[in-house]
């Protein structure tokens, strides 16, 4: 029997959740406010910034004049979407085999894949940098896409494995009895049933790849640099660039924020899928 | 007719293709600061004149340092020009990672001798090979508020005051109830942050990083005197939370009228004296950074310069750009288009003596005097085996400087005593220097 929750308790819970949500969102809100201020206003006391200074689009104009936003944006799109799609192509068959035809080592393989995420990236920076140098992949979108695919592959496999495990094997068996080949079974039976889970996997990995700053800063120079490099170019320990840095940050996170806003239902559903049985 | 057209088209096409074949694309890695922004804005003039193009990679100073170090040490070849400092240049040059620029001396129109000798020395190895050409140079001096000094009856020092006299000035000016702190100094940990100031102050107190046998000297009485003074000064007359204030935070505080004194980079003077960006532009003046038991190494020396990595495949084009970007003509161009106050300072003698410069920036002569009084080859009271005023020009210094910076910041925040901070620092420095083979 479901436990009754009093209205008072509900209000308290809502207030706490609202406050926590606001606190988490506050840094982004503050960046947004600063991006519409001049550099001189952006370093004033918080109350003066809010109530005693004008609003301007100067920082956005200055950022666009100095940096090619659309080049960085298109690099971010290509790298994040590309790495997610290649990741899916590898992860779907891998997750299928582990979910429906497990061997005695499946659990070990899964743990081994996850263990690769436990190594600090800087530990493999020099070897990867040298490989990229020798293969001509430095500052290339292709090279970066491959690295981000490999970085996120364990997460994609794990997420898909979790979703596939929720699907009864009998349905796939029935498809096989009806004469479906393995390819048809994965493409026409399994994939449509796992769409919500796959959608959240895709969204989460695009976000992870979009925000990835270690490899994207270290393996690029000018041509393949995505939006993370675009933001980094406005950070400075000498001189005042808070307003421009804020404007650059807003321009960089806006696409992913909008995408996240529209797909939050799928994201939450995907992330909590299988959490409660 | 048709044949003639075809021939004309073919000729035009081959000319275009020929021009295209000579035009090169170079990649320049740089920091985000006012002088480099100006260079980015003016560089299209060089691109237009030569047909070459530049890809700019602009990064935050620490990210740039890490990124360029990684690329140059692995012979990566991602960059054709790097914007590096006086710390890296001699080390990287000695490693053979940078293209020597000695042939710049042969170009009469470039006039290498016009660049201050001291600055050239700072960008050369011990054999005198030049590895980078400077865009601007800086030292440190004291910014002070003339109105506060007048109001509180504080005498402005005629020459170089001692740190004890400086503390008396800070004490007399300290008036937190009216929003004025006696002094604002760097407290944020880092070899390029708090240790830039603390290092020069330690020099003034007679301290040194290493003795002639490379034994770390951080547990010496001189270091103890310097750090004890620093912690006492900042805890009594500094703004709250000063252990997290770096150059930017202090610059903002000073410009907002919150600090009576500030010892920091001469390069901030243009900004502090600009009435559009500073509320204290008309009531700020300067005197030398204080001394104590010695006047050696009491103002730091730093230069941001352009260098060509040995791994670049386009060295000739890169050299051509370097010459243009540090030429007399470039400084003239900046003066004419951005104003003579915005011309990079402390690099060329002819620029610093130009009447247009002196009229636009009356404080420029003070800055040049301060820069020329620094000697990175003789920075301390007692002899040392290294060069560098606020840093030691060895690769191990970054790690040691950062660690000592953290220990000093912890002492300033009251998390440990000065003795503990220096004992930890000494232990760390001994370990690092032993590991690197300097000492046994």
Automatic annotation (TrEMBL), chain A:
Transmembrane segments: 12-33, 77-97, 109-132, 144-164, 185-210, 241-262
Keyword Transmembrane on entry: yes
CDD domains: TM_PBP2
Family: Belongs to the binding-protein-dependent transport system permease family.
Species classification: Bacteria, Pseudomonadati, Pseudomonadota, Alphaproteobacteria, Rhodobacterales
Domain ABC transmembrane type-1: 73-263
Protein name, as recorded: Sorbitol ABC transporter membrane protein /mannitol ABC transporter membrane protein
Protein's membrane topology: Multi-pass membrane protein
GO biological process: transmembrane transport
Localization of this protein: Cell membrane
Source organism: Cribrihabitans marinus
UniProtKB/TrEMBL annotation, chain B:
Subcellular location: Periplasm
Signal peptide: 1-23
InterPro entries (alphabetical): Bact_solute-bd_prot1, SBP
Stated family: Belongs to the bacterial solute-binding protein 1 family.
Gene Ontology cellular-component annotations: periplasmic space
Keywords (A to Z) from UniProt: Signal
One Pfam family this sequence matches: SBP_bac_1
Coiled-coil blocks: none
Organism name: Cribrihabitans marinus
Descriptive protein name: Sorbitol-binding protein /mannitol-binding protein
Presence of keyword Signal: yes
């Amino acid at each position: 029997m479901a436990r009754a929750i009093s209205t008072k308790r509900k209000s308290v819970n809502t207030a706490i959740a609202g406050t926590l949500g606001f606190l988490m969102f506050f840094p982004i809100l503050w960046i947004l406010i600063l991006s519409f201020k001049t550099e001189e206003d952006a370093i004033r006391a918080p109350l003066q910034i809010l109530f005693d200074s004008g609003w301007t689009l100067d920082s956005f104009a200055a950022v666009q004049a100095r940096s090619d936003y659309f080049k960085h944006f298109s690099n971010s799109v290509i790298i994040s979407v590309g790495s997610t799609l290649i990741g899916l192509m590898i992860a779907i068959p891998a997750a299928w085999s582990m979910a429906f035809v497990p061997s005695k080592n499946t659990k070990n393989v899964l743990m081994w894949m996850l263990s690769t995420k436990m190594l600090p990236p800087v530990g493999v920076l020099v070897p990867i940098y040298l490989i990229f140098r020798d293969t001509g992949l430095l500052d290339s979108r292709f090279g970066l896409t491959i690295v981000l695919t490999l970085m996120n592959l364990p997460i994609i496999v794990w997420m898909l494995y979790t979703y596939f495990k929720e699907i009864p094997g009998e349905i796939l068996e029935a498809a096989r009895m009806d004469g479906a080949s393995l390819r048809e079974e994965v493409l026409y039976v399994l994939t449509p049933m796992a769409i919500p889970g796959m959608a959240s996997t895709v969204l989460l990995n695009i976000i992870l790849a979009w925000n990835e700053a270690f490899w994207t800063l270290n393996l690029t120079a000018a041509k393949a640099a995505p939006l993370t490099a675009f933001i980094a170019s406005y950070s400075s320990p000498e001189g005042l660039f808070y307003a421009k840095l804020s404007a650059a940050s807003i321009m960089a996170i806006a696409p992913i924020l909008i995408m996240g806003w529209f797909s939050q239902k799928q994201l939450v559903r995907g992330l909590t899928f299988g959490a409660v049985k | 007719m048709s044949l003639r057209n075809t021939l004309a088209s073919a000729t035009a096409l081959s000319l275009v293709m020929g021009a295209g074949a000579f035009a090169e694309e170079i990649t320049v890695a740089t920091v985000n600061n006012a002088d480099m922004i100006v260079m980015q804005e003016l560089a299209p003039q060089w691109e237009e004149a030569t047909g070459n193009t530049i890809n700019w990679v602009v990064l935050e100073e620490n990210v740039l340092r890490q990124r360029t170090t990684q690329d140059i040490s692995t012979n990566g070849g991602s960059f054709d020009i790097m914007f590096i400092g006086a710390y890296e240049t001699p080390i990287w040059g000695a490693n053979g990672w940078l293209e020597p620029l000695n042939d710049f001396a042969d170009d009469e129109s470039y006039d290498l001798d016009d660049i201050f000798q001291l600055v050239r020395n700072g960008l050369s190895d011990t054999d005198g090979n030049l590895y980078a050409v400077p865009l601007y140079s800086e030292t440190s001096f004291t910014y002070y508020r003339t109105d506060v000094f007048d109001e509180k009856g504080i005498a402005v020092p005629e020459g170089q005051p001692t740190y004890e006299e400086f503390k008396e000035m800070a004490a007399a000016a300290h008036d937190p109830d009216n929003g004025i702190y006696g002094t604002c100094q760097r407290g944020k940990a880092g070899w390029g942050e708090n240790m830039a100031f603390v290092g020069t102050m330690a020099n003034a107190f007679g301290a040194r990083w290493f003795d002639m046998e490379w034994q770390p000297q951080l547990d010496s009485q001189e270091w103890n005197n310097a750090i004890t003074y620093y912690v006492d000064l900042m805890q009594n007359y500094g703004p709250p939370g000063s252990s997290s204030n770096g150059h930017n935070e202090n610059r903002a505080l000073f410009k907002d009228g919150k600090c009576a004194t500030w010892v920091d980079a001469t390069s901030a003077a243009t900004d502090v004296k600009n009435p559009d960006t500073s509320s204290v532009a008309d009531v700020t003046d300067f005197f030398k950074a204080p001394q104590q038991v010695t006047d050696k190494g009491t103002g730091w020396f730093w230069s941001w310069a352009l260098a060509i990595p040995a791994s670049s495949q386009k060295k000739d084009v890169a050299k051509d750009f370097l010459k243009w970007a540090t030429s007399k003509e470039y400084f003239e161009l900046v003066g004419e288009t951005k104003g003579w106050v915005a011309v990079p300072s402390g690099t060329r003698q002819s620029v610093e003596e130009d009447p247009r410069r002196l009229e636009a920036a009356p404080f420029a002569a003070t800055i040049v005097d301060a820069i020329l009084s620094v000697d990175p080859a003789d920075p301390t009271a007692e002899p040392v085996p290294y060069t560098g005023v606020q840093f030691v020009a060895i690769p191990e210094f970054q790690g040691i400087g950062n660690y000592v910076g953290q220990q000093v910041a912890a002492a300033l925040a009251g998390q440990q005593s000065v003795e503990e901070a220096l004992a930890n620092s000494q232990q760390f420095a001994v370990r690092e220097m032993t590991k690197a083979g300097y000492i046994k």
